[in-house]
UniProtKB/TrEMBL annotation:
Residues 7-23 have a biased composition (Low complexity). The modification N6-(pyridoxal phosphate)lysine is found at K242. Catalyzes the cleavage of L-kynurenine (L-Kyn) and L-3-hydroxykynurenine (L-3OHKyn) into anthranilic acid (AA) and 3-hydroxyanthranilic acid (3-OHAA), respectively. Residues 1-23 are annotated as: Disordered. It catalyses: 3-hydroxy-L-kynurenine + H2O = 3-hydroxyanthranilate + L-alanine + H(+); L-kynurenine + H2O = anthranilate + L-alanine + H(+). This is Kynureninase. GO terms for molecular function: kynureninase activity; pyridoxal phosphate binding. Homodimer. It comes from Streptomyces subrutilus.
Length: 415
């Protein structure tokens, strides 16, 4: 499958046309029939009759997870008990699963460690980044539209490290990078609008200014190529419960580029990140590699659910996932334009492929009630205050007929 990232969108981003619906159902069926990824849906346990467009919030259940979890609980925990820390390789799960996840974000092995929440990893990354930047720089630049937790954690990290937070518009952030900039924290995809930011160019510009970059990949990992190593990203964090389908509260991850690992000084130096955890010595000596990003005892049940969930990616190329994601969101916008009366919704997601993540956000009056009605009719997206309907397209289990039905149902609600 070719990767059309840079081609302009075929559909208008704003739904303005009505009139006789073209035969979109037949088009959807044809697109599903030729979709090389369509068979992947069988790797997930999805309820019958539901169109699930909220995988950008909580990914669907991969079919192998319940049995894997039962084995972890019954055999590994119930029978082997404490022996499982070694015999079931529980102890090394954070690095092992980090290495399994690494190709999905374009990282070579040894740079990703899984554990804790995204918020906690942001804290480690931001304070670690400020320490890497060293003295003499005063500003921590933060995506002005960021998911709130990033802003809260950045404020605290800045206070602890003597920096001042400066909000920046990510689309024009490069103009703000200067010799005073210590750290730059940006979201790869905006959680509200679905806008994709230019990670390669922004990382290049930040590094040219001598700043340390921290990227939040929550809304891009598993949906599109990230290529952390190729673009020279310094540090990154992300969650695994969205496009990676790790389950509710699944552990997050921290990426520490190899060139920084020796100097990465975690503000949470727990015993799991110690070079010799079982030496039980009073002084902290950081472990080699990304393992120094660990803190305390890993949440094994969630972590091993995530490991089983990653089986759903066997043989899947992220470029193919991206191509299907763009085709799905193009088609959904086209269907919305055909089915929804003019002027009732407006897309706040960029039309240009190079600026679009894997969700479509539609602004409308009374968005909360409209989403509740959609859900009652079997189309599950979500609502973000004050007026945004979000529809996430996870190419592993969403098809073109789902996109058509979601838009048609939206049209009926406004009809
Ligand atoms: C962009 C972004 N960053 C951070 C978070 C918070 O992650 P956590 O609850 O794992 O700390 C979310 C949660 O949805 C998010 O969308």
């Amino acid at each position: 499958m070719s990767d059309p990232i840079d081609t302009p969108a075929a559909a208008p981003a704003t739904a303005t046309t009505t009139g006789p619906a073209p035969d979109l159902r037949a088009r959807a069926a044809g697109l599903d029939a030729t979709d090389g990824l369509a068979g992947l849906r069988a790797r997930f346990a999805l309820p019958e009759g539901v169109v699930y467009l909220d995988g950008n919030s909580l990914g669907a259940l991969p079919a192998g997870v319940p049995d894997a979890l039962a084995d972890v609980a019954r055999r590994q925990w119930g029978e082997l008990l404490i022996r499982s820390w070694d015999e079931s390789a529980w102890w090394t799960a954070p690095e092992r699963i980090g290495d399994r996840l690494a190709p999905l974000v374009g990282a070579a092995p040894g740079q990703v460690v899984v554990g804790d929440s995204t918020s906690v990893n942001l804290f480690k990354a931001l304070v670690g980044a400020a320490r890497l930047a060293g003295p003499g720089r005063t500003r921590l630049l933060v995506d002005a539209a960021t998911f709130p937790t990033d802003g809260y954690i950045a404020e605290s990290a800045a206070r602890m490290t003597g920096l001042t937070v400066t909000p920046v518009d990510p689309s024009h952030a490069a103009a703000a990078f200067d010799a005073d900039t210590a750290v730059v924290l940006l979201n790869h995809v905006d959680y509200r609008t679905g806008r994709l930011h230019d990670l390669p160019a922004l990382t290049r510009a930040a590094r040219a200014a001598g700043a340390v970059t921290v990227w939040d990949l929550c809304h891009s990992a598993g949906a599109l190529p990230v290529d952390l190593d190729a673009h020279g990203v310094d540090l990154a964090v992300g969650c695994t419960y969205k496009y990676l389908n790790g389950g509710p509260g699944a552990p997050a991850y921290l990426y520490i580029a190899e060139r920084h690992q020796q100097d990465f000084d975690s503000p949470l130096p727990g015993w799991n990140g110690h070079a010799e955890p079982f030496a039980m010595t009073p002084g902290f000596v950081p472990a080699e590699g990304a393992r120094r990003g660990r803190v305390g005892t890993p949440d094994i049940l969630s972590m091993l659910a995530l490991e089983a969930a990653l089986d759903a990616w066997a043989g899947v190329g992220i470029a193919d996932v991206r191509a299907k994601s763009l085709a799905l969101t193009d088609f959904f916008l086209e269907c919305v334009a055909a089915y929804v009366p003019a002027g009732r919704v407006e897309s706040v997601t960029p039309a240009a492929h190079a600026e679009r993540g894997s969700q479509v956000s539609l602004r409308t009056d009374d968005a909360r009630a409209v989403m509740a009605e959609l859900i009652s009719r079997g189309v599950v997206g979500d609502f973000r205050a004050p007026d945004v309907l979000r529809f996430g397209f996870t190419p592993l289990y969403v098809g073109f007929a789902d996109a058509e039905r979601a838009a048609r149902t939206l049209g009926h609600i406004f009809g």
